[in-house]
Amino acid sequence: MSKTRTVRFNEQLDSQVDEYTTKNGLKVNQLINMAVKKYISEPNSIELEPIEAEDSEWENGMEEAFSKHSKAMGELA
């Protein structure tokens, strides 16, 4: 059973939605259903996995990164 909902777009997005639905022969409802389904069914963030490295490998990698990007690190300090 369908449920009625209200969606409010800002002006720029509203014109893009109109253009997209016209070009692709969709109704706004169809586009919203497809977009929401895709958004909630797929991962939306970066998932980081820890690396398995010894302390010496970590230290060497960190020192290399700091020396390579010393200018940026100096600007952050």
Structure at a glance:
The chain is mainly alpha-helical and 77 residues long.
C-alpha geometry: elongated
Work out the helicity level: 55-70%
| Quaternary state of the chains | single chain
Low-confidence stretches: none
Mind summarizing the main beta sheet? none
What's the helix-strand series? HHHH
According to DSSP, the number of beta strands is 0
Task: Give the topology.
Layout (H helix, E strand, L loop, with lengths): L10 H14 L3 H14 L13 H14 L1 H7 L1
Description:
With 77 residues, this protein is an all-alpha fold. The chain contains four helices and no strands. The radius of gyration is 24 Å and the shape is elongated.
Keywords for this entry:
77 residues, mainly alpha, 64% helix, 0% strand
